[in-house]
Amino acid sequence: MNLPLFRPHDDPGPSFAELLRRSGFENQISPESISGDSTSRIGKVPASDFRHGTTCIAVRYRDGVLLAGDRRATSGNLISHRSIEKVFAADRHSGVAIAGAAGPAAEMVRLFQLQLEHYEKVEGEALSLEGKANQLGQMVRSNLPAAMQGLVVVPIFAGYDLKLSEGRLFEYDVTGGRYEEAEHATTGSGSFHAGTVLKLGYRADMDPGEVTDLAISALFEAADEDSATGGPDPVRGIYPIVATITAEGYARTDDDELAERTSALIERRRARAESP
Amino acid sequence: MNMPFYVAPEQVMKDRADYARKGIARGRSLIAFRFVEGIAICAENKSSTLRKVSEIYDRIAFAGVGKYNEFDQLRIAGVRHADLKGYAFSRGDVDARSLANQYAQILGQIFTHEMKPMEVEILVAEIGADDGGGDQLFHILYDGTVVDEDMSVVLGGETEAISDRFGELDGVPELSGGLRRAISALSGPDRSLAPAELEIAVLERGTGRRAFRRLDDPEVALLIGD
What is the ipTM score, two decimals? Predict the structure, then answer.
């Protein structure tokens, strides 16, 4: 691999996507390569032919933002993966959670992470949170042709804004539209039920314990009603992925804590069911 | 018809080397050295925005002396090379040795074929695995010569005087001890350098995926015991 040197007039600047394009990787990344140049020619990809990730949520709380996602991937009506990860660190102070076609989603996350790091290294300082959110919007928009064929990818972006000293979160739609949310956001097939739990349980001043409990119960209810969302699996030791983003940065909540909180939740449920 | 004067190739190369060396000697120098937990790079640089030392990849750092725009162009090319390689293959496949070779190719090419050589000297440093060992310091000169340094290296003008003052290290030092020594070697006997006049960064083992970290002025002051 050669040292990529460019003349000033065609320098790709701090953009990694642009660098890929100028370095001949174009065919591997452009949505046209997935969908072909005419969307009508190939038609819709059957849902059973690719893996699909489901419910993710984000909630603002006292110290910043929490991101969480269930662990199930489906191919049509089959479970194709029991412990897939849909919540990722984007950089030190932001994270992204993705629902939709698993392959394009994982590639989008990888490119997004690289884009943020590449910008930071080339420019010598990180993008603003607003800038990161816009970047992700552009990536979702560039996936639109593939989305028209069923390969929809819809992320949630959350981060801690170091300038404003607060957690912020952004929802997207398939067109790349970017919408900032003040309280919580959901994406994926179970988002309807998870969103209701969040809406009813939300308070602005939740501490890290309270917001984790709320997230676990939102995903629990979603899994209860939506076949594509996976519930906690104590037999295999699989729990949702929960991550918090605060002034200290992105941190995954460890499985032991999640196991404890999940069993407390199940215990409360059992007590409620048994009470006369 | 005008005939160009014959100039011996030895003379051409010597002139170019003198030109490059003069350009490099005009700037301030830097020292890189291995310490217990990794590699430290200590540069004399009054500017806190025009950097001489920066991050290339997870475990690789870059430092340059000489003409700023020239080594900065090389730095950005290095970041691009590393990020592309990590994307095409895997993060573990990005290494300092191949990057150093790429730099050497480019510098050598420019030295022999272009109108003027690049007035830069650069350093590519990489720390090894978390259990220690495998640290690498590649010093690349304006003509594409690559030197694989062992414990420490000085880049810039007056390298001999600074190396003498820094001396031979007996064993790998702690960060604070190494820094004190590096700073007094850079400043020389007649003056002293305050933390604000220095740019210091480390590649540190056991600090997660991205090992590169800049030390700010208060931290430097604390380390050198001011």
Answer: 0.92
